[in-house]
Design brief:
Blueprint lengths: L1 H17 L6 E6 L4 E6 L6 E7 L5 E7 L1 E3 L2 E6 L8 E9 L6 E10 L8 H31 L4 H25 L2 H46 L1
Parallel strand pairs: 1-8
Antiparallel strand pairs: 2-6, 3-4, 3-7, 5-6, 7-8
Length: about 230
């Protein structure tokens, strides 16, 4: 019984290897990148793409002959056709063992070329963004207050630079893993503004405060000497 079961498994494996392999999805690719569309078949004499559909189901191409290398058939979709975000559908047909057979699979285009982040990751990102935004506002107001008093010290400067680098880190996470165009635009704007409000201005406040402290000390020393 075990022998017959083993032979049955071998037969199934042989049939699978001799027919066209169905690829359910090619995965994720970055916007405007070339996408290599593939299909494998050990007993085909051809494989053609019958249609490539945009996410809105508009056809890009139809009836394209794929290039054969060994048992792999391929066609490179130019990056000019992958500017739209979303799911693209590729369908075609081949002749495994002389029998015309159709196949379809999809791929996804986004800003990062990586799978979409989970809900937990998005929640953590949004919470981090709100916390950093609140600290950016608070530290800007805090810095202005100490600038007026002219007692802006090294610790204050460190806080401002620290929150700014945290903002840059959040922007890098967004660019590499989140890939949301609106959030990208917001963070880029904050990075540019923060370069002035949390880097240049705090450094200026610090220099002015140090200069004032040095001048007051020199005046105090002069007053002491005159006595």
């Amino acid at each position: 019984m075990k022998r017959y079961f083993f032979l049955l498994l071998l037969a199934v494996a042989f049939l699978i290897s001799s027919t066209s392999a169905t690829i359910e999805t090619l995965g994720y690719f970055k916007q405007n990148s070339d996408v290599s569309l593939i299909q494998t078949c050990s007993s085909c004499s051809f494989n053609n793409i019958s249609s490539i559909l945009y996410p809105n189901t508009t056809a890009i191409f139809s009836n394209i002959a794929m290039t054969k290398v060994g048992v792999t058939y391929s066609y490179v979709l130019n990056g000019n056709y992958t500017s739209n975000f979303g799911r693209y559908i590729v369908c075609g047909f081949g002749d495994p063992s002389g029998v015309n057979t159709t196949w379809c699979y999809d791929f996804f285009i986004n800003a990062t070329g990586r799978p979409e982040p989970s809900g937990a990751v998005l929640t953590f990102f949004i919470v981090s963004f709100l916390v950093i935004l609140l600290f950016l506002i608070y530290l800007f107001i805090y810095s202005l207050g100490h600038a007026v008093k002219k007692d802006f010290d090294m610790v204050d400067l460190g806080f401002c630079l620290g929150i700014y680098f945290a903002l840059i880190g959040l922007w890098m996470v967004q660019s590499q893993y989140i890939g949301n165009p609106l959030m990208e635009s917001i963070l880029i704007t904050l990075v540019y503004i923060g370069g002035f409000t949390h880097v240049f201005a705090p450094m200026l406040f610090f220099v002015i405060s140090m200069f004032r402290a040095s001048w007051e000390k020199s005046q105090s020393d002069m007053s002491g000497g005159m006595r």
